[in-house]
Write a structure and sequence with these properties.
The protein has ten helices and no strands. The protein is mainly alpha-helical and about 220 residues long.
């Protein structure tokens, strides 16, 4: 895609969804961090089901530490890898209490030093909580960026760097969400629904899938 195509690509996605947001449910920045850690190799729907009751009781790192690892496991046992995730959440909560006054630092490099927090998780928190122009490359963004030709790369980091260079203003803060939602609901892995895609004519992917019978 050239610069004009990329601008039009995001303009159309923005027109369709002017205020994109994460589908994870949370009440504050700490809960967002926990939800994103729990979402690794899990669906947002599954995480939300597990955290609704948890987040009514636990709103701070200190409260999470008080709940304890066993108590947390009981709340998140429906989520994959819940044993490891519970251990990481308790450990990062202890660090936030001890070193950061119970606050989540607005620093990607610092966030990635916390247990269970990789670059993708840190990028999500920086974007959703602090409005940073970061691009958290999950499986959906990786697929959409490569399939469309928006920002091709063999690794998530390569795609992230490509997006950093190519995504124009005023779309940089929202781009992360538009791409995830587009990949989740339209540009699907096995059968992309090109017949209803608002950016199909700008996309490098061929062939386009036909519309199901009875739809246009």
């Amino acid at each position: 895609m050239n610069k004009a195509d990329i601008f039009e690509f995001f303009r159309r996605l923005a027109e369709d969804n002017p205020s994109p947001e994460t589908e994870l449910e949370f009440g504050n920045t700490y809960q967002l961090l926990v939800a994103v850690v729990l979402s690794a190799q899990a669906t947002d729907v599954g995480v939300n089901k597990a955290t609704r009751a948890l987040f009514r009781a636990v709103k701070t790192p200190a409260q999470m530490v008080a709940l304890g690892e066993d108590g947390l496991k009981e709340n998140i046992k429906t989520i994959g890898l819940f044993n490891t995730k519970a251990r990481n959440v308790i450990a990062l909560s202890e660090i936030l209490v001890r070193d950061y006054g119970g606050e989540v630092p607005a620093d990607r490099d610092v966030l990635t030093t916390l247990p269970g927090v990789g670059r993708k998780t840190a990028n999500v928190v920086m974007n959703c909580a602090f409005g940073a122009e970061t691009f958290a490359v999950d499986t959906h963004i990786f697929r959409v960026a490569n399939r469309t030709g928006l920002a091709r790369g063999k690794t998530p980091l390569a795609v992230e760097k490509g997006l950093e260079k190519k995504v124009p203003q005023p779309f940089r803060v929202g781009a992360h969400h538009w791409l995830i939602l587009h990949g989740r609901y339209v540009c699907k892995a096995r059968r992309p629904e090109c017949w209803r895609c608002p950016v199909a004519d700008l996309c490098a992917f061929r062939p386009k899938s036909a519309a199901p019978k009875g739809r246009s």
